[in-house]
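Your task
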Amino acid sequence: MSKLAQDIILRPVITEESMAGVMNKKYTFEVAKDANKIEIANAVKELFKVDVKKVNTIHVRGQLRRYGRFEGYNRSWKKAIVTLTEDSKTIEFFDGMM
């Protein structure tokens, strides 16, 4: 069963480091843990109407956090860094952030 693009791309990652990559047409997203690079590339193409050059994925482990005497872990998640082709248009959502 194929997933919808909205189920694969969960949210954009807005950090100082990820915004520095926007100049080179590199955009960072939180994606579904079970999504592969091909599904991520197709979802970005469908949602934003851009041409994808490559996709890098990273599993981000949850960090240990303490709340008083209690400790636990943040949730783990999957991050995708999507590089667009040189002749592709930019993603408008990130243009307003800079």
User: Anything to note?
Assistant: The chain has a mean pLDDT of 92. Strands lie at 9-12, 26-31, 52-60, 64-67, 70-73, 77-84. The longest helix spans residues 37-48.
